[in-house]
Each structure stands twice: as structure tokens, then as C-alpha cells.
Write a structure and sequence with these properties.
Protein name: Acetyl-CoA carboxylase biotin carboxyl carrier protein subunit
InterPro entries: Biotin_BS, Biotin_Carboxyl_Carrier/Decarb, Biotin_lipoyl, Single_hybrid_motif
Organism: Hwangdonia seohaensis
Strand content: over 45%
Order of helices and strands: EEHEEEEEHEEEEEEEE
Structural class: mainly beta
Keywords: Biotin
CATH topology of the largest domain: OB fold (Dihydrolipoamide Acetyltransferase, E2P)
Number of strands: 15
Pfam families: Biotin_lipoyl
Length: about 160
């Protein structure tokens, strides 16, 4: 079936669009930013007014109605579900297990000051060693797991002050 994209329009409406639907879109490019689209036997004039490819955000004008669109692929959704979304990491006050696994090593102690991207612990999951790093500068308030512990997804591991 191909890749599926989740879209949010005007922070209100959520849609799923797959590659097959995009490839079947009846659209003709008129200029760099303008398209003529026919959908369900109706004609639409589409103008891409602003685009930020890196952030996957677009402002599109369809028949003189303006829409703000955010597009998320499977990786974006997985990153968000794991709690590693850009922007949210600066407010993280705890580290939870991103997946079930075994704590191989804890490299910090309570009351220790850490910098963003310092290694906190190593979690073995699916026969791979996953290095869990600090999402921000801070001081370790508590460590709720020990070396050798089996942990479940979303189990609290470390708290920051």
C-alpha cells in the first residue's frame, strides 16, 4: 500500500493520506507554487504560499481559502510517541523506557549534574544496546531502576530536579 502520512489542517482536522492517493491526484502544475487540481469532478486552484520542508509545514490557499498544514510520516509519529519530539525535550523532567528491555549500565548518580546529550544509561532491547542520553541540562533527582533490571515500556527510569 505504501507509506501513510498523517496531516493536520488548521490545528483542527486530522487526515491520513497514503502514497497511492497522492499518485492518483489529478493535478497540473501551473507555476512553481500554483496547481490546478480536479477532485471528485470539481476544479480547485491551489497556491502553496509558504513551505518549510524541514518542519513539514505548509500554508496553502485553495480557491481563496487559506489552510495551515502539518504533515507527519511514520518516523515523526514514532519519535513523538517515544517522547523525543523536538521542542518537547527541553521540558522533560523524567526519562521513561522507550521500549521494554534490560538495563545494562547506569552512568549517572543522584544529585549529579548532567549536560544535554550526556549518556544516562544503556538499555538492551531486541538484542541491541540503546544509549539513552539526557534531553537537557539538569540535575538528577532520582534513579528508579538498577543495573540488571528488566523494564517495561514507559516505566520511569530517571527524574530531573
Amino acid at each position: 500500500m505504501g507509506q501513510t502520512f498523517k496531516t493536520n489542517v488548521n490545528n483542527t482536522f486530522d487526515f491520513e493520506i497514503n502514497q497511492e492517493a497522492v499518485s492518483k491526484l489529478d493535478a497540473i502544475q501551473i507555476s512553481d507554487s500554483e496547481f490546478h487540481v480536479i477532485h471528485h469532478h470539481k476544479s480547485y486552484k491551489v497556491d502553496i504560499q509558504e513551505s518549510n520542508f524541514n518542519n513539514k509545514t505548509y500554508q496553502v490557499k485553495v480557491n481563496n481559502n487559506r489552510y495551515n498544514i502539518n504533515i507527519f510520516n511514520d518516523l515523526d509519529i514514532l519519535i513523538k510517541e517515544m517522547g523525543f519530539a523536538i521542542g518537547s525535550t527541553k521540558h522533560v523532567n523524567s526519562i521513561k523506557a522507550p521500549m521494554p528491555g534490560l538495563i545494562l549500565e547506569i552512568q549517572v548518580k543522584e544529585n549529579q549534574e548532567v549536560k544535554e546529550n550526556d549518556t544516562l544509561l544503556i538499555l538492551e532491547a531486541m538484542k541491541m544496546e540503546n544509549i539513552i542520553t539526557s534531553p537537557r541540562d539538569g540535575i538528577i533527582k532520582s534513579i528508579t531502576a538498577s543495573q540488571g533490571d528488566a523494564v517495561e515500556k514507559n516505566q520511569l527510569l530517571i527524574e530531573f530536579e
